[in-house]
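Dear Dr. K.,

Following up on our conversation at the group meeting, I've run the structure prediction for LRAT domain-containing protein from Rhododendron griersonianum. I'm pasting the input sequence below exactly as I used it, so you can double-check it against your construct before we proceed with anything downstream. Let me know if the numbering doesn't match what you have in your notebook.
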Amino acid sequence: MSSLSNRVKNENLEAGDHIYSWRNFFAYAHHVQLRGKNFVHIFTLVAGLNKNPAGSGVACSCLACFKRKGSLYRFEYGVTKIAFKLHLRGGTCTTAESDPKSEVLHRANYLFENGGFGKYSLFRNNCEDFTLYCKTGLLTIDIDKESGRSGQIADLVKMLPKKIKAKYFSHCVGLGRYGSDVGVRDDVIKVPVEDLVADNSTQDDENDHLQDNDNATQLRR
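The predicted structure tokens came back this morning:
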């Protein structure tokens, strides 16, 4: 495991692996959850990816489509505090332990088939957030937090001016990348994937009901 990332060859990949590939000269990494010969991930704004049957942001594509001409890297779980801090970039490892492969694949497949992880959001709900959840089942308690669990976003927030952080990312101020890691945060809980999908479906129904009421009000005016 290097201080930048952990490169892995195709033949050494296993189903259930959390893998990523650097884009635009290491500007950022795109994360996916490997599912046999295919992978599942949440990024829907990539050309060539089809929306899943459930209509959520989780999509499935072939490994070659994701890899393009780049290299693959395996995200590391259960690293020590020292090893975590030695990594130069966020979004490459976590101190949180991964669940067994069967649980990881169940979450990924369930979300793909039933939706429920929500729409893509760079700061709150990105591809790294999705794969972290598949591997650990951990989610933040407060869904209104300005950012999710992504190590890359923690790095980005760290570089922002103090005034912007204080206004838009107040909960991240003073934490640093290590303090934002899901393995040490005190505002994360384990959420069964069935409960996550059910809760989000209920929320969607409530939002639709509110929208219908708004439309009806507009028509009466």
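Two things stood out to me. The two ends are 64 Å apart (CA to CA). DSSP finds eight helices and eight strands in the chain.

Best regards,
J.T.
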